[in-house]
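Hey, can you fold this?
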Amino acid sequence: MLDGDGALLMHMGSLPVIAHHAATNYIHIVINNGSHESVGGQPTEGFFADCCGIAKASGYKKTVSIASEAELEEWLSNGLTTSETQFVEIRTSRQSRPDLGRPTGNPGDWKMISCRH
């Protein structure tokens, strides 16, 4: 599973469910850039939360926090062979592509459009 830090923080209740029901070779990867990047770059508390600690407390057998290219390369070399339910946090910068699509318009208008359908 691939998640962002914003989604993880908004849906933390799913962590114990995943940890309890996932196959033993399940890998949950969180790309943590400290923001809700896909919807405008609003900051999250992703860099302040102990994401791996939360995952461990939720029942994930193995947790890994990656903050450098070398750590990522090491995990890619060794971490994919584990047979344990695994949570992997990859910390990145907030930089994004300038052409990254974002929602446009007014959220109030979106509500009115949704209510008509």
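Oh, and this one too while you're at it.
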Amino acid sequence: MSSFTQHKKIIMGRFGAPHGIKGAIKLHSWSTPTENIFNYSPWYLKANGEWRTVAPKLLSQGNHLITAIEDISDREAAATLTNLDIYVDRTQLPQLSPGQYYWSDLAGMDVMTECKNMLGKVAYVFNTGSNDILAVQGERERMLPFLPETVVDIDMHNNTILVNWDPSF
């Protein structure tokens, strides 16, 4: 598996259920703050193996982000977007300082202990509210906290994350 850093499109969110009868739809955003997803345009959607671009419009940001998409004018059309991932062009994202990483940069990287025990590959990353978690798929799934005492080194060139972790845990 190659590193996800080679991808030109980055997942920034996912459509939820339709909202109302006029084509609005709930939105789950992975950006911080969540409404920052509207700073990126166009959005790219992939359905049935085909890419398409859409221009979003923020309708509400109360308990849920609600968006309208051009050419979507009824509930049935909005329902076709449910659970589709929302991508943006990677070039739109801000440059990071050394030592900072986008979650998508970590996905697919090899994870090994300081004693060179291979634990697997990063399947995905998520946030618990207190810290980020690396979900590592190997002979079994492990959830490693993305903290300085756990993540010792990230070597983007060699696609490897070195961790301080007991492989039996």
